[in-house]
Amino acid sequence: MKFGVTWLLLLVLSVSSHAAIVNGVRVWPAPDNTRLVFDLDQPAEHTVLVLKNPFRVVLDVKGAQLKTDFSDLDLANTGISRIRSAVRNQNDLRIVLDMSSEMTPRSFALKPNDQYGDRLVLDLERSTLADLGLDSSPQVRQSVSKTLEAVNSLKRDVIVVIDAGHGGEDPGAIGPKKLREKNVVLAMAKELYDQLDALPGYKPIMTRTGDYIVALKKRSDFARQNNADLFISIHADAYRLPSAQGASVFALSNGGSVSAMAKYLADKENASDVIGGINGVSLEDKDDTLKSVLVDLSMTSTLQRSVEVGALVLAEIGRFTKLHGDRRSVGHANFVVLRAPDVPSILVESGFISNPREEANLGSAAYRKKMATAIKNGVVKYFEQTPPDGSYIAWAQQQKNTTKKYTVAKGDTLSGIAARNGVSVNRIIAVNNLSGTSIRIGQVLLIPGA
């Protein structure tokens, strides 16, 4: 009996003294930070310190061994020039990051979940975006003005923030053939960006332009910081039954009843911060200011506008692809990303990536372009119906209402016609889609109001 107890004690000591194995590492560069994620086979204590002259970030992992290679990592745009490792105190693992720019480290451990085992996360935060040669404005990606007229007359663009869901450590849903939601929706978001950017009077901005994670609340905050007229979050559904299919559009629930599927999808999307390793962010928004706004009439107005634009987008999507179930109206669910209290916000589920046929569609550039076009058409219809005050779109609609016709007579010049009507030559050219200033006798021109 004594021998058995001794053997058991030795076994316990052997298991407890087993060194943690670092068996993988991933690097996710973002505009304002770089994230390194180390995969472990068990939890391990760690410390982080900064050394200067030259600037280095040091990660010490207690009682750990390295079973992966750093040489294959792409360190472009990370602020890291080299990663090296060594054994410290004959037992610990030391990982040294040689930095090309000074960054502030922050680290934390993540427990296992459905997709990953134990992880150690090291975030390197930039003091300014200038470290990457990027603009220091809060706009990650913004368009240039499309019309000189709009700039000169200070007629503002309609700002549409486009949010590609998930990213970085959080792949989102994964299809039967391993297609990842984060990649699909980023490609779709970029297509929507390009289409809106080509329209006069629209300024699209993206919450992320690469493969990195953005906290859920930061996405809606980003829309508010940029004075967005509309926030669109793009996703792809997944469900345990592969037969589930169809696209849908959601607005924030105002506390009323929601369908079981809507709650299921919202719960999955709201888990993004946990999977992606956003440390210390609660999925339940406890912002007292927001809670007070939620019961305010302004929030009611925002929700109503969200439903209105969502209905137009949904109708356009339904023109070319199947909608989920009998959903011919905008769904409601408590998506964290839709909680901006004063920005109309919708979430587009572009299809079920868990359905083999729809996974193939989502992997197709042609399908993604059709989806982006449908979203764009719905957005344009909404703002044509309710143009924001002071916007180029509101001005353009006013011009349509005051436009008159003029037949070119002998001796007329475009500059003379413009001067007599108190408008610029450029405005007449724009309204009539002229290629230049040449006109002919008998030609009918549309003359916009002065």
UniProtKB/TrEMBL annotation:
GO terms for molecular function: N-acetylmuramoyl-L-alanine amidase activity. Its main location: periplasm. GO terms for cellular component: outer membrane-bounded periplasmic space. The keyword Calcium does not apply. Its EC number is 3.5.1.28. SUPFAM superfamilies: LysM domain, Zn-dependent exopeptidases. Gene3D superfamilies: 2.60.40.3500, LysM domain, Zn-dependent exopeptidases. Residues 1-19 form the signal peptide. GO terms for biological process: cell wall organization; peptidoglycan catabolic process. It catalyses: Hydrolyzes the link between N-acetylmuramoyl residues and L-amino acid residues in certain cell-wall glycopeptides. Residues 404-447 form the LysM domain. Keywords: Cell wall biogenesis/degradation, Hydrolase, Periplasm, Signal. It is found in: Periplasm. It holds the Pfam family Amidase_3. InterPro entries: AMIN_dom, LysM, LysM_dom_sf, MurNAc-LAA_cat, N-acetylmuramoyl_amidase_3. Belongs to the N-acetylmuramoyl-L-alanine amidase 3 family. This is N-acetylmuramoyl-L-alanine amidase AmiC. It comes from Reinekea marinisedimentorum. The lineage of its organism: Bacteria, Pseudomonadati, Pseudomonadota, Gammaproteobacteria, Oceanospirillales.
